[in-house]
Amino acid sequence: MLVVMEKGTSEEKIKAAVNAIERRGYTARPIPGGDRVSIGILHNKGSVDAAHFLGLDGVKEVIPVTKPYKLVSREFKQENTHIKVGDAVFGNGSFPVIAGPCAVESQNQVLSIAKSVKDAGAKLFRGGAFKPRTSPYSFQGLGKQGLVFLAKAREETGLPIVTEVMDVENFNLVEEYADVVQIGTRNMQNFSLLRRAGKSDRPVILKRGMSATLQEWLMAAEYIMEEGNTNIILCERGVRTFVRHSRNTLDLSVVPAAKKESHLPIIVDPSHAAGVRDQVIPLAYASAALGADGVMIEVHNNPEEAMSDGAQSLYPDQFVTVMEKMNAIHAIIKK
Amino acid sequence: MLVVMEKGTSEEKIKAAVNAIERRGYTARPIPGGDRVSIGILHNKGSVDAAHFLGLDGVKEVIPVTKPYKLVSREFKQENTHIKVGDAVFGNGSFPVIAGPCAVESQNQVLSIAKSVKDAGAKLFRGGAFKPRTSPYSFQGLGKQGLVFLAKAREETGLPIVTEVMDVENFNLVEEYADVVQIGTRNMQNFSLLRRAGKSDRPVILKRGMSATLQEWLMAAEYIMEEGNTNIILCERGVRTFVRHSRNTLDLSVVPAAKKESHLPIIVDPSHAAGVRDQVIPLAYASAALGADGVMIEVHNNPEEAMSDGAQSLYPDQFVTVMEKMNAIHAIIKK
Amino acid sequence: MLVVMEKGTSEEKIKAAVNAIERRGYTARPIPGGDRVSIGILHNKGSVDAAHFLGLDGVKEVIPVTKPYKLVSREFKQENTHIKVGDAVFGNGSFPVIAGPCAVESQNQVLSIAKSVKDAGAKLFRGGAFKPRTSPYSFQGLGKQGLVFLAKAREETGLPIVTEVMDVENFNLVEEYADVVQIGTRNMQNFSLLRRAGKSDRPVILKRGMSATLQEWLMAAEYIMEEGNTNIILCERGVRTFVRHSRNTLDLSVVPAAKKESHLPIIVDPSHAAGVRDQVIPLAYASAALGADGVMIEVHNNPEEAMSDGAQSLYPDQFVTVMEKMNAIHAIIKK
Amino acid sequence: MLVVMEKGTSEEKIKAAVNAIERRGYTARPIPGGDRVSIGILHNKGSVDAAHFLGLDGVKEVIPVTKPYKLVSREFKQENTHIKVGDAVFGNGSFPVIAGPCAVESQNQVLSIAKSVKDAGAKLFRGGAFKPRTSPYSFQGLGKQGLVFLAKAREETGLPIVTEVMDVENFNLVEEYADVVQIGTRNMQNFSLLRRAGKSDRPVILKRGMSATLQEWLMAAEYIMEEGNTNIILCERGVRTFVRHSRNTLDLSVVPAAKKESHLPIIVDPSHAAGVRDQVIPLAYASAALGADGVMIEVHNNPEEAMSDGAQSLYPDQFVTVMEKMNAIHAIIKK
After folding, report:
1. Which candidate from A43, A63, A66 shows the least CB-CB separation from D65?
2. pLDDT digits over B251-272, tens only?
3. Same domain for D17 and D157?
4. Hey, are the CB atoms on C66 and B35 less than 8 Å from each other?
5. In chain B, which residues have their Cβ closer than 8 Å to the Cβ of A304?
């Protein structure tokens, strides 16, 4: 951390700042510049809180130099983390696809979709039993019944199940049925939930918060990893911006940026970002071309009648084409 | 809701869209325009999900007309909701001030600050016992011990206590000690927590999510109210934007906008938005001038040694001046 | 346009609103809903200004239904516009690549780079002679001398030249040397410059403003087209968001969205969005996969010594690989 | 500037980076930290371009320490700049108000409004003769005729005139009629226009760009000041965010932030940010409470028939009350 002093700050104030830093147990090293003095903070384990020093007399700015995450960082562990689920591996350069409906609606629905996405080449099946909805009056999911339907689909197709957990209360239940547990965008900084996920032996898909910086996202992963669970798959799903032509703005630049900073695999969910089918397909191709470690895509056998997010769900036959082209693109960039 | 068809859509496709709408139980009324046909959706109770119709053949756009919230809306209840806590009333045109440190650190600290903010005219005392922190390595609060310290401060000063609850697990505990329960920005769409708050008999301060629209925020309040708790105080605390000169961007325009849409009181927290003392003070004055139903401000007896957010905490003597000027400004705008 | 009245608005106020609308020359048609009355505005040529009606008594909201652009819209012209420059065609399903340095620095530099990008398969050569720079103390470009160097590179390689024009004063000069004139992100709403470009017989690359909605961008194109120049190539180059891991956030969803709304070709500039080479390459592949009508990429023979934006420029040999993979990806999605 | 090297970078790469920095004429000073080496860049005059070093081998990040602006900075000139126009002074702690219609529509209109705002206490009169409009089909202003009308209003009321200039072509003309020349939000980085304004002897109101950081805004002012014109009034008018309840988000935190960084006066335009009257009034009070150096407010004698932005214009009698309360608030905060 670099504490930048105002131009012409007196020796006395600089000393006072040095003392304040050292009182907190750090080493302070003043660095005279052309114009002003900065004070480097050394020997800090983990992150230092900028707020501690920002209000000191004569301090103009406090600039973090070291990143606050540790366990999730590539500096801590150089090689990619590989996460194996069923036939799929996330993080080893392959491109596994997770597909399925937004919400579990009935046993027939999930069986029908699971079979068709398996035939098209998907490696995992997704479906929501507990649905976080902006409105208390919207369909909230089938709950436990939905999990039972998903388990049946796994039994019939062999595809591992990905489903969302919304709270600590239902974690045991979801964990019992799911092969991979998903933490949604609105819960990315639900620290109690992250801690609970850290104690699970299920891999976790951690969706990016709607306005989370890469650093905040990695810190959320750090909460999970710090509790012992190292199987975390990051999932970009669009961020909130001023843009109105799509539901959220898919930030594909975060994929190479995350790979540089962290050893964790990162996949992309183009469905929720786009909100409409016409955008989901090209964004899925873009995700494959980008070098993501997989994608998660919504597919519905009857989007017109879907209980949630029908407009963004692909038809099963569209999904077949999308799979073929994504795989062909992936083969090119892996050459 | 208005379903806008593409220019030159065939009669057949329009009929199909009308049928799709009516199959979901709504009334569809086609409205021929100069250029294109739109279809109005009538007799919908509560909100209609745009996603249901966005993917239909020939549909160009789906435009919500009615707002999705009901209980919290001013159309549902015209008069302001008044929420009485101790000597303070939120929503009746007065300007109660909540003050205290970011985090509870010790019994002496909270007693000292509570006395000084009471003398300066604050009506409620705030302090965090459970702290949501971006980093798992940052100070996480004293937990139950912190609540006990707060209760002692109430005993000595008579000021009601405001403190944050982070999860359903600790809700009973926090509720037992707190006079007002706060739900933080990262939990604004933690729907399980909102539901639990809806069953509490404590008033709830609901902070705005870091990138929540006014509509999403009111929908979060709707979750609480739908469970039976009508005592909700909205709290603007800054939103995430591209701006870098302050921690978040305080969106003061949301105060008149929320008052127009909802009968709930709305207060402002300038401390977390600004992140630095130099900005907190002018933003506190601005909040008073704007007609907010109160403010929440961080005050610390020794900001240099604070365990969190020292840079944004006012010194007790600064707070005295701020109180005087805020009250004088409030008197002018209430004339 | 739909003028939504408040719930329970009196007949009288509705009549007054209808009159106010008709006084401005439009047809007003009241549409009674379940809850409230809305008034449709018909027979408007071009866009109607929402601000005219938003302040009327009893009006809750004004919702635009028709888009304000006309000449650039796909409803106006169904088929893609094809823009031919040298050997390249933008908009016909091919994938022409524009490459070159950020700034023209010397005759040798542009000759060397032009030759290498031509060999790698680029169809147009780019280079800045007039540089818009945030700081008045940064290198501002070589001006006319730079144009002369570019012309020489065209002479030697046969590649048409793309270069930026910053103001009306220098338009004649730039037009004389350039085959395609570029309008930069900061000038997207410099209406005087747009009008001048509309009178040019050169194709125009219109970069998206840093925080422009798709609608504002298309309206900027409408300014150009309204003056007579129909050869406009849209160029996405990243928008401003809260994100800090890349210079701007490349909004790839705008490509399918723009193609749906407009007949104009749209290309992507991954270099300026990313700001660092490590991100430029994957984003270039993503742009090819997405179905963009081309890309514009910065290449420099000696990025370490570049006078501007060295960190985002590809090395010539990197560019060779990027070209091969982009072309292979393009072939897949065009199947 | 601080060049942060990756953890464990070899001595050799560090030396190479030091050499690359010194080849550009700077002094490089390596600073060993606990975890990694950083290299300080000293003796740089003005700003250093981060892009020069970001792509070097082994470089993890480049962090600016010194701000790139010079002439506009408070470090360069400690005392506030005072700008006198007619009876008003901007920057001396007073609170001058600029008022008038969005657009000049007729001689009667401007005379009527000018008289009423003068009576209410406004010190300058504003009105647009050249209007930057998103749509080429919207009313573009009366041009020179509008300037003549404004001059007549000055003659009759004695109020100095503020009006916008959109391009270099019309600068001479506008300068001839206006007492203060305004540069609009869309032209904040129209560098040719800024340079021309720098050669004018008129004070300039420089509106903040719709997504400009404080630093970019001050750099735009630096362009003007570097050409010799030191009379620059900054004007905050709202920035673009995800928010939808107001047209733009008024960023009041920029007022104290700008005052800390720069000696220039800063005023607030609540009208364009809000877009609706109900928000303009409270935001005007907030601006007065915040310590801004003035405000600019739209007032119209007949908002229902206004040719642009009627919904945000105050009625003359509303403006009287607003003036009284703003002045009373200003008196309190100046105590």
Report:
1. A63
2. 999 999 999 999 999 999 999 9
3. no
4. yes
5. 20, 55-56
